[in-house]
Amino acid sequence: MTENSPPPSALTPEEHAELVAYLDGELSEEAARAIELRISQEPRWSAEAESLQKAWDLLDFLPQTPEPTPHFTQITLSRLRSRQEPTSVGAKLGWLLLGSGAWGVTLLFAGLCAYNTYRWTYPPEPGEKELLRDLRLIENKRYYDRIDNFDFLEKLDDPDLFGDITSP
């Protein structure tokens, strides 16, 4: 038997709900007679019914709450209104600062988005390092302008294009 399983003599949750409904008088006559029969025949049902009845009887010994006065609702609502009406200057200032801070963060985010969009749309001109790295390409640009596509350059790289030139 596991820790969470009820003892074998205990009622299942469904049976317990039926017994509570019987004790509350919520069942039809036919269902009530069936529960009474089970209580009289099964000891676990009678033990559970007896313990529940004792618990109900103990409720009578609890102190009774007085009936609320007819003006209870009006008094309660007026007290709530009086607590809500006076708002301090500090609270108003706090909300003002919070709103201003939120607007500031929103504007900062919008500015960063605009800056990044501009940088992506209009990339910066190449610097000195990039130009020096591509210096040979830039110096020979006039030769490359005459080439229509890269296939021509790849064919020039083929060693069989001009035949094997052997050195003496």
List the helices and strands and how they pair.
Layout: H1 13-24, H2 29-41, H3 43-59, H4 72-84, H5 89-121, H6 128-133, H7 135-139, H8 141-144, H9 150-156
Helix pairs in contact: 1-3, 2-3
Descriptive overview:
The chain is mainly α and 168 residues long. It has a domain at 13-59. Helix content is 65%, strand content 0%. The protein has helices at 13-24, 29-41, 43-59, 72-84, 89-121, 128-133, 135-139, 141-144, 150-156. The chain is elongated, with a radius of gyration of 46 Å.
What's this model, at a glance?
The chain has 168 residues and is mainly α. It is 65% helix and 0% strand. The chain has a domain at 13-59.
Tell the overall outline. elongated
Provide a count of the helices. 9
Beta-strand share of residues? under 5%
Largest sheet: none
Distance between the termini: 99 Å
